[in-house]
Write a structure and sequence with these properties.
This protein is α+β, with helices and mostly antiparallel strands. The protein has three helices and five strands; from the N terminus they run ββαββαβα.
Length: 122
């Protein structure tokens, strides 16, 4: 089912109509009187396998900062290829990275964009 929606376009500072698609179960969709549905697809979309590049960007590395001045050790979550991340650190999936961010004092790295990617999820 395609629904019209509105979206902001920051480049032109305007609001434009956009198409939004959603799959409904037969119980959720009811036919409208007088409308033909011959051209409506009734098959599921084929799921594409993620490319290696898309899979890579969801890997994360954890940097443990040592305790100093009476403060406890803390953690910094980096995108897997961040220059600040230790090369020997184990790569983690997003669930494991979010678990680390739930620890007191843990922060996502702002240099590699982990704060933008994980901030809303943490």
């Amino acid at each position: 089912m395609a629904l019209p929606m509105w979206a902001d376009d920051p480049d032109t500072e305007t609001v434009e109509p956009r198409e939004y698609r959603v799959w409904l179960t037969p119980g959720q969709a009811r036919p409208i009187d007088g409308v033909r549905y011959d051209a409506v697809p009734t098959y599921p979309l084929r799921r594409e396998e993620p490319t290696a590049q898309a899979a890579d960007r969801w890997a994360w590395k954890i940097q443990r900062t040592p305790a100093a001045g009476g403060r406890p050790a803390s953690y910094v979550v980096h995108v897997w290829d961040c220059e600040e991340a230790a090369p020997e650190a184990q790569e983690l999936d997003v669930s494991a990275a979010l678990e680390v961010l739930r620890r007191p004092g843990a922060v996502p790295c702002s240099e590699c964009g982990a704060d933008v990617a994980l901030g809303p999820l943490a």
